[in-house]
Design goal:
single chain; 271 residues; mainly alpha; 0% strand; globular
Length: 271
Amino acid sequence: MIISTYILLAVQDVLLFILPAYLIARWRGKRQPWQWLRFKRTSCLNITTVYIGIGTMVVLQPAINLLADLNSRLRLPACMAGIEAWMQRMEAANNATLEQLLAANDGWAVFLSFVVIALLAAVSEEMLFRGALQGWIGGRTTYDNMLPGTQGMMSRHIHTAIWVTAALFSALHLQFYGFVPRMLMGALFGYVLVWTGTIYMPILMHLTNNTVVLLLAYMVRGDETLQKAAENFGAGETWLVGVVSMVLGCMLITFLYLSIRQCQEPLERRS
């Protein structure tokens, strides 16, 4: 039963995310679909940016919990009560599936959880949302006029593409009470793609987030007290930790941007 669920999730990722992303890239990128999706190395993909990117996602976990807690307090208008109830059922179903997968104790189950829930999800979702949809909405010509990331001013179309794609990314998870933090995270991944010029960085940051969440879930499973503490760390009585996490996360994002700009300067001088 567990193996069949992993297979189903993997097939779902391929059919709903990877295949549409590839088809869009074949249509828009002609003979270079993988290049169009930004699967390429750039000078900004270096050890410094990698460390800062990973550190950013680790530091932001309490801030994400704080935003999720604030998001959960929002309620749709009474006329949309049916939609809200449907969203609640979908979120409960997703959580039940995750709990079922985490209940397995053998090494293969843990390995498959990492491959399917963390790695494959990060790669497939970034391919569709950041690689395909953001590039399509923003206009690949604008991307191509930049050096590995952000030479010159980013156009209005790029900002629109990043936020529209981030909203779609969050909405299609069908988890209303995590909509805001997931949208902000999607926007961060979108800007990182534009700054660095490569999809490897948003995939790495997405993978880091998924891995941290998965590891914490394994560490506290079976203990309801620890589960609630982990889920609410940075919210409720620990809201100050969430605020500090948000401030430190913003600082790290700024450092990431500055390190990317620094690696672009030699290229800009040569252009």
